[in-house]
Write a structure and sequence with these properties.
With about 130 residues, the protein is mainly α. It has one domain. It is built from 6 helices and no strands.
Length: about 130
C-alpha cells in the first residue's frame, strides 16, 4: 500500500484539530480550509474516514498542557456542568438547558467517535421534556 494513502493531508489534520476543540464538523471543515458551501458534506465524509476518526481519537487523548484546554479538561468541565456542579458568574446553578447542552457535547465527543471507529453510524440523542405530566 502506498505510504501517501496512510497519511492525512494538512487540511485533514487541521480539521481533526478543530473538531477536537469544538465538536462542530461544519465549522471545523470551514476553519480547515474547505469551502463553506461543501462544509457539511465534507465534514460528513471526513468523519466517516477511519483515519480521520483515529486521528480525532488520538488528539482527544493528548495531554498537551501548552495548548488551549486539552480534551480531558474539556470533558471534565462538560461533565461537571452536566452534573450541576458548576455555578455561573452569579453563583447560580447551571440551567437545565446548559446541562443538556453539556451532555450533548459529551455524547458528540465520545459516542460518535467510538461508533465511527467501529464503522457504525452516528448516534443521535434526542431528549424530550414533557412538562404536562
Amino acid at each position: 500500500m502506498n505510504n501517501k494513502n496512510n497519511k492525512l493531508n494538512e487540511r485533514q489534520k487541521k480539521f481533526c484539530r478543530e473538531y477536537v476543540k469544538t465538536g462542530n464538523g461544519k465549522q471545523s471543515a470551514i476553519k480547515a480550509g474547505y469551502t463553506e458551501r461543501s462544509s457539511e458534506s465534507t465534514s460528513s465524509a471526513l468523519l466517516s474516514n477511519p483515519k480521520v476518526a483515529q486521528e480525532i481519537a488520538r488528539l482527544s487523548g493528548l495531554q498537551d498542557k501548552k495548548a488551549i484546554m486539552d480534551a480531558q479538561e474539556v470533558m471534565e468541565l462538560f461533565s461537571a456542568i452536566a452534573r450541576g456542579e458548576v455555578k455561573d458568574q452569579f453563583g447560580l446553578d447551571a440551567s437545565l438547558a446548559d446541562r443538556l447542552k453539556a451532555m450533548n457535547e459529551i455524547a458528540k465527543r465520545t459516542v460518535d467517535i467510538e461508533n465511527r471507529m467501529k464503522g457504525l453510524p452516528d448516534t443521535q440523542i434526542s431528549i424530550k421534556l414533557d412538562w404536562d405530566t
